[in-house]
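Dear H.,

Thanks for agreeing to be a second pair of eyes. The structure we're designing against is below in token form, covering all 336 positions.
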């Protein structure tokens, strides 16, 4: 007997990736319900060779469902996730709606799976950049103790969904054909450009994305006093987020030992041979599961510190894969 699964937001970029990964990882789906807006209702999507119609998302969409992946945005999650939980389903929510609630676990399975033991039907999937960064930071924290973290993120169009990816392609084509790129999903064209603002602008000049990164890292690592500073930048890359990280540790950790620890960490691959032009890049991270880490070296500005660069696919480990790994633990159906 398989698990009855629903995907809310099935037609979006993350929802489509969830569908692919459920099949790729042989998750034991007994029945599958695809939910989206009224606009997408009636459309068909393919899973395991079967064409499945998309249904409109509503309060009665979860009857008989064991597991719901929410990837329809914070507003929809706040509106419908409680109804799914009341119906008896377990919800894995990809939005920011519940991440910072004390009674909701915020989980990266390779880092804090024990947090799942206290779930009450609702588990939050972290922000995509948080996941990619922490996959590298957590093993180093276990080895030497994190004291402070500075991050400059380089976030792909995929982080803003399918429309942003399509906009980037259209804008690039327009420029290469001698035309003019027009803004779409962002206030400025993204093609051949960088936009140093992601999310709403908050008091003090910080953005919502930068605050998410700080607060979510603290919660997942159980380090409420960890000093974190971030600057998040949207870059003209289709998918796979990158970040430059400066990590200060409480104990000395030389680069060779850091590479050794990272090489043994699940879900991480060390790509660190700059002399041979081998380092993390979105081009090589896109479409893959592991988070790449490289350019590992001592931070000359800090007593005990390392500098490194990470790259990870935002739609896979940064979103859909992490959500499915959570579900695999919750339902005792881990692939490995």
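And this is the sequence the design step returned. I haven't edited it by hand at all.
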């Amino acid at each position: 007997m398989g698990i009855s699964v629903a995907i809310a937001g099935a037609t979006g970029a993350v929802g489509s990736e969830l569908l692919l990964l459920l099949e790729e990882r042989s998750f034991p789906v007994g029945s599958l319900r695809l939910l989206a807006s009224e606009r997408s209702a009636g459309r068909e999507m393919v899973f395991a060779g079967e064409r499945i119609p998309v249904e409109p998302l509503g309060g009665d969409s979860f009857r008989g469902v064991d597991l719901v992946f929410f990837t329809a945005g914070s507003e929809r999650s706040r509106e419908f996730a409680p109804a799914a939980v009341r119906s008896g389903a377990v919800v894995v929510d990809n939005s920011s709606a519940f991440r910072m609630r004390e009674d909701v676990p915020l989980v990266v399975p390779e880092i804090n799976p024990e947090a799942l033991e206290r779930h009450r039907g609702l588990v939050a999937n972290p922000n995509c950049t948080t996941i990619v960064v922490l996959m590298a930071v957590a093993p180093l924290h276990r080895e030497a103790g994190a004291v402070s973290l500075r991050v400059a993120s380089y976030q792909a169009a995929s982080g803003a969904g399918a429309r942003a990816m399509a906009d980037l392609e259209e804008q690039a084509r327009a420029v290469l054909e001698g035309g003019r790129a027009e803004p779409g999903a962002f206030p400025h064209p993204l093609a051949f450009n960088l936009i140093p603002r992601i999310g709403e602008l908050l008091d003090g000049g910080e953005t919502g994305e930068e605050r998410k990164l700080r607060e979510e890292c603290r919660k997942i690592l159980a380090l409420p006093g960890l000093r974190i500073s971030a600057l998040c930048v949207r870059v003209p890359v289709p998918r796979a987020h990158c970040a430059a990280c400066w990590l200060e540790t409480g104990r000395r950790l030389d680069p060779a030992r850091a590479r050794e620890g990272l090489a043994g960490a699940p879900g991480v691959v060390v790509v660190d041979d700059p002399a041979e032009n081998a380092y993390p890049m979105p081009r090589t991270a896109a479409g893959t599961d592991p988070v790449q880490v490289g350019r590992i070296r001592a931070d000359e500005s800090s007593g005990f510190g390392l500098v490194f660069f990470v790259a990870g696919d935002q739609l896979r480990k940064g979103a859909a894969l992490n959500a499915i790994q959570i579900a695999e633990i919750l339902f005792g159906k881990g692939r490995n």
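Two observations from my side: The chain has a mean pLDDT of 96. The radius of gyration is 20 Å.

Warmly,
E.
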